[in-house]
């Protein structure tokens, strides 16, 4: 979205327990604080007090034209996050509402797998324009994806489409294409939910090596075949948002457990 479509993009890493976005985006260190901008947050986060009990906003880190915020910026080495739901929700609020994002065209929230606190908190707190589901082709992976789809529907969040990750492997020597994780599962799931497969990403060593190095293929090889796969996904997602009328989605329901 940023490199191919030229959009102003923010990226929020909502995986508090396993943040990986800092490595992918080649970003390190704690965010700086803009004491000129403030917001109100739960008292547990008021480490940098501002006027009337408000807290100064953090400045997102930026690389590849993407403004990024992740809890990984606050962790040292292999430090684990051994927190329960309320603390996870507070951390999420801190990053979402306590960041000076500036003017954005799109805020992408990278969610952890599952249907837990992070997803429910997000769906209840802000109006989402849509959700994109990502799955490998095999049925065992699609079990959780289908549950995720049902959760977003209950939260009244439109499904924008499915991305098939590790869709196929093309031999670098002979060009033979092999569907290592099977085929057809993502298409069947998309049909069941009346959505489209917005793109297929191949299983390729360059994606692995460049992601681990913090030099994603869309930035390091923007005219390559692999970058084109991601570019197609970005185009289809934006097309779906335009069709739905982005920003028109109403606040989701409030879910309580008794």
At a glance:
This protein has 258 residues and is an alpha/beta fold.
Notes on the structure:
This is Iron-sulfur protein NUBPL. It comes from Tetrabaena socialis. It holds the Pfam family ParA. With 258 residues, this protein is α/β, with parallel strands linked by helices. The protein contains 8 helices and 11 strands. The chain folds into 2 domains: 13-105, no CATH class; 127-247, Rossmann fold. It has helices spanning 21-25, 85-97, 117-125, 139-154, 185-192, 205-212, 217-220, 225-244, and strands at 9-13, 33-39, 55-58, 61-63, 66-70, 106-110, 131-135, 159-164, 169-170, 177-178, 197-200. It has a 4-stranded mixed sheet.
Features:
single chain; 258 residues; alpha/beta; Rossmann fold; 2 domains; four-stranded mixed β-sheet; three-stranded parallel β-sheet; 8 helices; 11 strands; 19% strand; globular; Iron-sulfur protein NUBPL; ATP-dependent FeS chaperone activity; iron-sulfur
Number of domains: 2
Q: Separation of termini?
A: 41 Å
CATH topology of the largest domain: Rossmann fold
Shape: globular
- How are the strands of the biggest sheet laid out side by side? 4-5-1-6
Q: What Rg, in angstroms, do the CA atoms define?
A: 19 Å
The CATH architecture classification of the largest domain is: 3-Layer(aba) Sandwich
Count of runs of 4 or more consecutive helical residues: 8
Number of strands: 11
What percent strand? 15-25%
GO molecular function: 4 iron, 4 sulfur cluster binding; ATP binding; ATP-dependent FeS chaperone activity; metal ion binding
Organism: Tetrabaena socialis
InterPro entries: Mrp-like_CS, Mrp/NBP35_ATP-bd, NUBPL-like, P-loop_NTPase, YlxH/NBP35
Protein name: Iron-sulfur protein NUBPL
């Amino acid at each position: 979205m940023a490199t191919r479509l030229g959009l102003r993009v923010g990226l929020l890493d909502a995986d508090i327990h396993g943040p990986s976005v800092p490595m992918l985006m080649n970003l390190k260190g704690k965010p700086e604080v803009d004491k000129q901008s403030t917001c109100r947050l739960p008292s547990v986060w008021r480490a940098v007090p501002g006027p009337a009990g408000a807290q100064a906003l953090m400045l997102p880190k930026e690389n590849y034209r993407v403004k990024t915020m992740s809890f990984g910026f606050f962790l040292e080495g292999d430090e684990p996050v051994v927190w329960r739901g309320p603390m996870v929700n507070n951390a999420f609020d801190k990053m979402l509402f306590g960041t000076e994002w500036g003017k954005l065209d799109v805020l992408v929230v990278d969610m952890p797998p599952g249907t837990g606190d992070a997803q429910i908190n997000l769906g209840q707190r802000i109006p989402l324009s849509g959700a994109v589901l990502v799955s490998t082709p095999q049925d065992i992976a699609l079990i959780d994806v289908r549950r995720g789809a049902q959760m977003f529907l209950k939260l009244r969040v439109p499904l924008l489409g499915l991305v098939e990750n590790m869709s196929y492997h093309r031999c670098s020597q002979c060009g033979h294409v092999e569907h290592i994780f099977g085929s057809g599962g993502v298409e069947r799931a998309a049909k069941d939910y009346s959505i489209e497969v917005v793109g297929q990403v191949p299983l390729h060593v360059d994606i692995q090596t460049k992601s681990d190095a913090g030099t994603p293929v869309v930035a390091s090889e923007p005219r390559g075949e692999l970058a084109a796969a991601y570019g197609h996904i970005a185009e289809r997602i934006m097309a779906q948002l335009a069709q739905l009328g982005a920003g028109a989605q109403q606040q989701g329901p409030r879910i309580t457990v008794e």
